[in-house]
């Protein structure tokens, strides 16, 4: 039976597909770590209280990148170059979502609208990350190779999502509500398109590595398009709602260390 669990089991069982999966994940997480570190360094004076939380967010993402690289090393694998059509983070930037890297590479302080853009982008993308890691946690938390990593990363992504809700609500109460809703909607609609395109690209690369039949590939492509149709019609709304999280101050503490996988 074709399911998310069976697909991932197949990817996990093949060295080449597993290496591609981990390489894509490690690259995206490391990129997110760099972006958050730069944003933390450029936070405007009036929002300096956010800087330690943004830095913690970046440290978590960088840690996730190290974890995925460690998972490859544990199987004696080296990272593979990430195909450009699977690079979710860079494709989002290319579509104008989030803060441009040119802005982050400068030493010019960010503005409050920049912080709203950053948080809206994070709210949407962390929703995706939290859902994906929850799926892996439900199916693979007890796996001898990836179980610990899945549980740690999933908990971190939940914390990142809670932090985004809390900070966006704080800024909404401060009078930025309409700007936040505009930014969230724009980001969500762009993200679901990028996610569809990246999903199609990843499945194409995996299919070649694993020798999927044309019929199986057709079913998977149809499933990806069906998910996009649902998200385009209504599913995107889950990415733009805001509610105060049960856990407040989710990023107030120090970053947790990556476990050893060797």
Helix share bin: over 70%
Number of strands: 0
Which structural category fits the helices and strands?
mainly alpha
Oligomer description: single chain
Largest sheet, described in full? none
Overall shape: it is globular
In short:
The protein is mainly α. It has helices at 4-12, 15-42, 51-74, 88-94, 101-105, 112-140, 147-210, 214-233.
Blueprint of the fold:
Layout: H1 4-12, H2 15-42, H3 51-74, H4 88-94, H5 101-105, H6 112-140, H7 147-210, H8 214-233
Explain what this protein looks like in three dimensions.
The chain is an all-alpha fold. The longest helix has 64 residues.
Features:
single chain, 262 residues, mainly alpha, 0% strand
């Amino acid at each position: 039976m074709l399911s998310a669990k069976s697909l991932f089991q197949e990817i996990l069982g093949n060295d080449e597909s597993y290496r591609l999966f981990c390489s894509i994940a490690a690259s995206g997480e490391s990129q997110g770590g760099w972006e958050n570190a730069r944003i933390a360094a450029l936070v405007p004076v009036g929002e300096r209280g956010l800087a330690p939380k943004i830095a913690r967010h970046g440290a978590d993402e960088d840690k996730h990148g190290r974890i995925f690289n460690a998972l490859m090393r544990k199987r004696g694998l080296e990272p593979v170059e990430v195909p450009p059509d699977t690079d979710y983070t860079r494709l989002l930037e290319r579509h104008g979502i989030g803060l441009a890297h040119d802005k982050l590479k400068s030493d010019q302080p960010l503005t409050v609208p920049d912080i709203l853009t950053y948080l809206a982008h994070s709210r949407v993308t962390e929703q995706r990350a939290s859902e994906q890691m929850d799926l892996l946690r439900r199916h693979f938390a007890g796996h001898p190779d990836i179980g610990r990593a899945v549980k740690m990363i999933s908990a971190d992504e939940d914390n990142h999502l809670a932090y985004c809700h809390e900070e966006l609500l704080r800024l909404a109460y401060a009078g930025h509500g309409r700007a936040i809703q505009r930014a969230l909607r724009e980001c969500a609609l762009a993200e679901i398109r990028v996610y569809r395109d990246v999903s199609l690209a990843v499945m194409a690369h995996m299919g070649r590595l694993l020798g999927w039949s044309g019929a199986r590939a057709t079913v998977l492509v149809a499933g990806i398009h069906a998910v996009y149709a649902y998200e385009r019609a209504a599913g995107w709304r889950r990415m733009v709602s805001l509610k105060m999280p049960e856990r407040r101050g989710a990023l107030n503490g120090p970053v947790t260390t990556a476990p050893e996988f060797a």
